[in-house]
Fold this protein.
Amino acid sequence: MQQLWTLAKIILGFVVVVSLVYIIVQLILPGFVELTGVELPQIELLSQEGVGERGLWDWLNLLILPTTVIILAMWVSIVFQERTTQMTKYRTQELRLIEEQKSKETREIEENRANDAREIEQQRAQEAVLQSYLDQMTHLVLRDGLDTANPHDSVANIARAHTLTALSRLTGARKASVIQFLYESKLIGYTEFMRSTNDGVEDVTPPIINLYQADLREAQLIEIYLHRATLAGVNLSKSDLSGSYLIEANLAETDLTEAYLYKTNLVDANLRDVHLNGANLTDGQLMGANLRQANLSEAVLHEADLSGADLTAADLTNAELTGANLTECIVTADQLATARSLHGAKLPPNIANKLA
């Protein structure tokens, strides 16, 4: 293509030069002949029948037009070929992009299908684990008297082992199904309290199945009813207990780090030594709760009701207590001074004066 274009430029240049010479001669020749009286010789060319004498300039007249047409035709052809090449290149790129997009979409579809298939398989596996667990526990309750066993009986130990194994393999809402089953079977619930001792320690009746260190991370325990349930020492970090009913529940030493407890009812609950750092207890009901030595650092307690709660030695560093009700609770001014915000909070009168 480059060679054709070069040739065309050479020919076009030649034609331009010849044309210029022709024009100049046509303009000068008459004056030259008139001035000098010299006539230019005529070149006689032999031709076939019908062709007479032709002068040099006659032949130039004859050649300029067709030569120009040829050059223009060549130029148009070259331009057309370049245009065609560009269009072909553009079309090739466009087709390649279309193919790449199709390939990408195909891969995404295949990946989504693979992910969906894995998700379905995982859900089936989860359901199988849950069903197997429920079958085993039902067998222990109906045939081995698990629901009337003592916490140290072998059947209770077997049930605990099954429970801890199942919880470690289950996720989200299925963890909640296990807890709901245990509670309704009276295996972790109905704790008997002897409250209001001087040192803040409650005398409790231990549950048949001890869930200490059970894996309930990220469990979906939304609006679950666990009145007086025992979940002491359980790992409930990042779990969702919003709207749950946990009145008088035993959650001592439980890990509730970054848990979501929006509007959770924890009235009179045992939260001694609990880890609530980073937890969200907005609008939570903690009236009369035992929060001795609880870690509430970075916790959000907006509009939470802590009236009458025991916060002895609790860590309130950077806690958000905006609008919280702290009337009649056991807490010191030094503790509250470490909180991030007490804006609009209702404080005990003796502390309000110190922090004013």
